Amino acid sequence: MAKLKITLKKSINKAVESQAATVKALGLGKIGTSVEHNDNPQIKGMIRKVSHLVCVEEI
């Protein structure tokens, strides 16, 4: 199964509350932090919701 590396690139200070909650649910906190998740439909949906705040790489 493919893995995705997700990095927070922009602040969540002015983001909508549901988007900030999604970023936290992905396991991201500060700008520049990265996490790895398996590539599945749930994670892809979360990424799509906050795509303007994160950078995604396939590893």
Order of helices and strands: EHEHE
> What structural class is derived from the secondary structure elements?
alpha+beta
Proportion of residues in helical segments: 25-40%
The count of helical stretches stands at 2
Our estimate of the beta-strand percent is 25-35%
How many extended strands?
Answer: 3
The main sheet comes to: 3 strands, antiparallel
The whole-number mean of residue pLDDT values reads 96
Alpha-carbon distance between the two ends:
10 Å
Strand order of the largest sheet: 2-1-3
Alpha-carbon Rg, integer: 10 Å
Shape: globular
Poorly predicted ranges (pLDDT <50, ≥5 residues)?
none
Short characterization:
The chain is 31% helix and 27% strand. By secondary structure, it is α+β, with helices and mostly antiparallel strands.
Structure in words:
This protein has 2 helices and 3 strands. With 59 residues, it is of the alpha+beta class. A 3-stranded antiparallel sheet has the order 2-1-3, with no helix packed on it. The termini are close together.
Overview features:
59 residues, alpha+beta, 3-stranded antiparallel beta sheet, 2 helices, 27% strand
